[in-house]
Specification:
Helices cover about 50% and strands about 15% of the residues. The chain has about 675 residues and is α+β, with helices and mostly antiparallel strands.
C-alpha cells in the first residue's frame, strides 16, 4: 500500500520502504507534464532541437523548404536569462545583509548576528555563491528554485606514511614495545587508540609494516568539518513535492534524490551511521547492474520509465515525512533508502530530525499567479514564441540570400549539370540554352521585424531602455528582488542550522562578542528578521550614492531625540560605496567597544610603567568610563597620592579624552543650534 500525502502515524517498527517507493514512483509519474516542461525550457534556452546539425543546416528527405536550408540559432531566451543571472549575482555581491531585532532589547544581538550572516555568505558556507548562481539559473529557466539546507559534521581522514620515530613521539615507550613480539596486543591497542579510524585488521597490517620497513600508512584526521551546507536542487531531477503542493512547509512527504558513488556510500556508514547491510546490498547491485539515471538528453524521464546508464552510481532517496506519535506529537522523520534496492524493507537510516520544525528546503517561484507550487512559468516560457519567430526571420533571410547567390537554373533535359560556381565551366550546344530563374523578391522589412521582436522580448522581461519603457526598471527590480528574497531565506535557514548544531565559539570568534558567557547563541526556532537590501541605482550610479548620503546626513542634523542610529547609517553608507571595503573596515559595535577597552587597558599599563601616552582619536566615552573605574582601584589611588609624575601622566591622558567629548558636544550645538537632547547619539 502506498503512502498518502496525509499525515501518517509514526510506527516504531520502522519505515514502510515499499510504500515509500510506490509513493515516489507515483509522484514522479504525476509530475511528468512539469518535467517535460522543464525539458522544453532547457532545450529552448540552449537552442537544442531534434535533428540539429553542427553546420546549422537542415538534413533529411522531409525537411522544408529544402535539404541544406538554414536552421539557425536565436539566443533570445539564453541571452536574457544570462543577463538576469548576472544581475542577480551582482546584486548578491553588493547587497547589504542585516538582521533586525524582533523584540525590544534585541539590538545588540541583531548586530552580532548581522556580522555572522555576512561571514556565512562569504566564507563559512562552502560554495555559497556557486549554489546561488545555480538557484538563479533554475529560477529563470524553470520557474522554480529549490535549495536544500543541511549541516555537515565529520572528520576528514587521510592516509599518511609515518615512521617509528614519528609514532614514538606520541608514546615514548612505543619503540620498545614494538620490538617485542609478545607485546603485539599492546601495540595494536595503542595504534587503535591513537588512530581511531584504524580497524584491528589494519592495525595488525601496520604492525607488520613497521617491523619490516620501519614505516606504515596510518589514517590521520586532518580537518574537522562542522558547518552548514547549502545545495541547489533541480526541480525535475533532484526533489519531488506532492503534485498538489501549495505550501512546501505544509507537505507531509517530500523526496530528495541523490546519486552517490560506492565510496560515498561506504563513507556514510562511518560518518552518519548508515546500515552496513544496506551499503553492501546497493553497492553490489550497482556494480552488477546498470544504475538508473535521468537521461540528460531527454532531461527528465519519469521514474516509471527510467533510462539506464552504466555509470556505477547508486540512486539514494531521502524521504522526509511529518509523522504523528500516539501522543499526537508531530515530528519530521527522514528515511534514507534506494529506489532500486529495498529487499525486506532494507534502508540506510531512519531518524527523527531533533528540534526541527520545518522541512530543510527553501523554495522560490518566479511567478505566483496560482496557488499550486508547480503552476508557475519561467522566463523561457514567456520568450519561447518570440525566439521561434526570430529564428524564422533569420532562416528566411539566409535562405533568400542562398537562392539569390545561386538561383535554380534551366537547361535541356538529359544534359549533364553544368558547374555553376566561380571559375566553373558551362558547355552549351546552343547559346542561351542554360539560364537562371528569377529568385523570389527579398523582404526588406525582415530585419525590422526581427528588431521589433527583440524589443518585444526585452519589454516582456524589463530589459528595454527605461526611457522607452517606464516599467522596465520595475520589472527588473521585481526579478532581482525575487532572487534576493530566496537568498535571504536560505541564509536565515542556514543560520538556524548553525544554531542547532554548530559550535558556540564560532559565533563569538567571528562577531567579536567581548563576553561570550553573557551571550548565548539563541533559539534556532525563534523569530529572526533578516533583510537583504540592494539598490541597483546606488550600485551603478556614484552620483546617486552621493546624493542619498547627503540627504541622510541632513536628517542627522535635525535629529534632536536620537532616533537615527548613526552607527547603522555608517554601515549602510559604507556598503553602498563599496561592500567589500566596508566588510574589511566596519566591525560590529560590540567588537569595536571591546577593542577600544583593550587599547585603553594597554595605555594605562604603559602609564603605570612610567611612559607618557597620548589619547587615541576615537572612543572617548569608553575611555572615560574605564578611567572612572581605574582611578578607584586601591593600588592606583594610592600611587596617585604618592607619585606626582604618575598622577600627572594619568590626568593628562584623560583630559585629552575629555577635550574630545567637549569638541563633539560643541559640534552638536553648532549643528542643531541648541543643546542636544538627552540620549541623542553623538556622531
Amino acid at each position: 500500500m502506498g503512502v498518502s500525502n496525509d499525515a501518517q502515524v509514526y510506527e516504531a517498527g520502522g519505515p514502510d520502504v515499499a510504500g515509500l517507493n510506490q509513493h515516489y514512483q507515483e509522484t514522479v509519474s504525476e509530475l511528468e507534464t512539469f518535467i517535460d516542461q522543464c525539458r522544453d525550457n532547457y532545450d529552448s534556452r540552449r537552442n537544442s532541437w531534434s535533428g540539429k546539425q553542427k553546420d546549422l543546416r537542415k538534413k533529411g528527405a522531409d525537411v522544408v523548404p529544402w535539404e541544406g536550408s538554414s536552421d539557425s540559432e536565436a539566443m533570445v531566451i539564453g541571452e536574457r536569462i544570462n543577463a538576469f543571472v548576472s544581475m542577480c549575482m551582482f546584486a548578491l555581491e553588493r547587497a547589504h545583509i542585516r538582521a533586525y531585532p524582533v523584540e525590544i532589547g534585541d539590538s545588540a544581538r541583531a548586530r552580532v548576528v548581522s556580522s555572522f550572516l555576512k561571514w556565512m555568505r562569504d566564507s563559512y558556507v562552502p560554495r555559497f555563491r556557486e549554489e546561488m548562481e545555480l538557484a538563479a539559473n533554475n529560477l529563470f529557466e524553470k520557474g522554480l528554485a529549490v535549495t536544500y539546507i543541511g549541516y555537515e559534521q565529520r572528520e576528514v581522514s587521510r592516509l599518511q606514511a609515518m615512521d617509528i620515530e614519528q609514532i614514538a613521539s606520541m608514546n615514548p615507550d612505543f619503540a620498545e614495545l614494538l620490538m617485542d613480539e609478545n607485546n603485539d596486543d599492546l601495540v595494536i591497542e595503542f595504534l587503535q587508540s591513537t588512530f581511531p579510524k584504524l580497524t584491528k585488521r589494519k592495525a595488525r597490517k601496520a604492525l607488520r609494516q613497521l617491523r619490516k620497513t620501519g614505516q606504515a600508512e596510518l589514517p590521520i584526521s586532518i580537518k574537522a568539518i562542522d558547518r552548514p551546507i547549502v545545495q541547489t536542487l533541480s526541480v525535475d531531477t533532484d526533489v519531488f513535492f506532492p503534485p498538489s503542493c501549495v505550501d512546501v512547509q505544509k507537505s507531509n512527504i517530500v523526496h530528495r534524490r541523490v546519486l552517490m558513488s560506492p565510496q560515498e556510500v561506504i563513507s556514510k556508514v562511518n560518518t552518519e551511521g548508515w546500515s552496513q547491510d544496506f551499503a553492501d546490498e546497493v553497492i553490489k547491485k550497482a556494480r552488477g547492474e546498470n544504475t538508473r539515471e535521468f537521461d540528460s538528453t531527454s532531461f527528465g524521464q519519469p521514474a516509471a520509465a527510467p533510462v539506464e546508464h552504466d555509470n556505477g552510481l547508486v540512486e539514494i532517496i531521502y524521504t522526509y515525512q511529518r509523522l504523528i506519535s500516539d501522543e499526537n506529537a508531530e515530528g519530521i522523520y527522514c528515511t534514507v533508502w534506494s529506489a532500486r534496492h529495498h529487499p525486506q524493507n532494507l534502508h540506510a537510516k531512519y531518524e527523527l530530525l531533533n528540534g526541527v520544525d520545518d522541512l530543510p528546503f527553501v523554495v522560490c517561484r518566479l511567478h505566483n499567479d496560482s496557488k499550486r507550487l508547480y503552476d508557475t512559468h519561467s522566463m523561457a516560457d514567456l520568450l519561447r514564441g518570440v525566439q521561434w519567430q526570430v529564428k524564422a526571420e533569420r532562416d528566411s533571410r539566409i535562405d533568400r540570400a542562398s537562392i539569390a547567390t545561386l538561383p535554380p537554373s534551366r537547361g535541356p533535359v538529359g544534359r549533364p549539370k553544368p558547374e555553376f560556381r566561380p571559375g566553373g565551366h558551362v558547355t552549351e550546344r546552343r547559346p542561351g540554352e542554360y539560364s537562371f530563374m528569377d529568385p523570389p523578391p527579398g523582404d526588406a522589412g525582415s530585419i525590422e521585424v526581427e528588431n521589433t521582436l527583440l524589443q518585444q522580448a526585452d519589454r516582456m522581461v524589463g530589459l528595454s531602455n527605461p526611457a522607452e519603457d517606464p516599467d522596465a526598471q520595475t520589472k527588473r527590480a521585481f526579478y532581482v528582488n525575487k532572487f534576493l528574497m530566496h537568498v535571504r531565506d536560505v541564509i536565515r535557514e542556514a543560520y538556524r542550522s548553525y544554531l542547532r548544531y554548530g559550535p558556540d565559539e564560532m559565533l563569538f570568534r567571528v562577531s567579536g562578542v567581548p563576553e561570550p558567557q553573557q551571550f548565548d547563541k539563541g533559539d534556532p526556532n525563534a523569530d529572526l528578521d533578516v533583510a537583504i537590501h540592494f539598490d541597483a541605482q546606488m550600485a551603478q550610479d556614484p552620483e546617486a550614492v552621493e546624493a542619498k548620503l547627503g540627504q541622510m546626513l541632513q536628517l542627522v542634523q535635525y535629529d534632536r531625540t536620537g532616533k537615527i542610529d548613526v552607527e547603522s547609517l555608517i554601515e549602510v553608507a559604507a556598503a553602498a560605496i563599496d561592500p567589500v571595503l566596508a566588510d574589511s573596515i566596519i566591525q560590529p559595535q560590540e567588537a569595536g567597544a571591546a577593542k577600544m577597552a583593550r587599547d585603553v587597558a594597554e595605555d594605562l599599563a604603559m602609564i603605570y610603567a612610567g611612559v607618557e601616552v597620548g589619547a587615541r582619536p576615537q572612543g572617548a566615552e569608553i575611555a572615560m568610563q574605564i578611567g572612572q573605574n581605574y582611578s578607584q582601584v586601591p593600588d592606583v589611588a594610592q600611587r596617585m597620592q604618592e607619585d606626582e609624575a604618575f598622577s600627572a601622566r594619568l590626568t593628562k591622558y584623560f583630559e585629552q579624552y575629555q577635550f574630545q567629548l567637549t569638541q563633539q558636544r560643541n559640534a552638536e550645538i553648532g549643528r542643531l543650534g541648541t543643546e542636544p537632547a538627552e540620549g541623542i547619539q553623538q556622531s
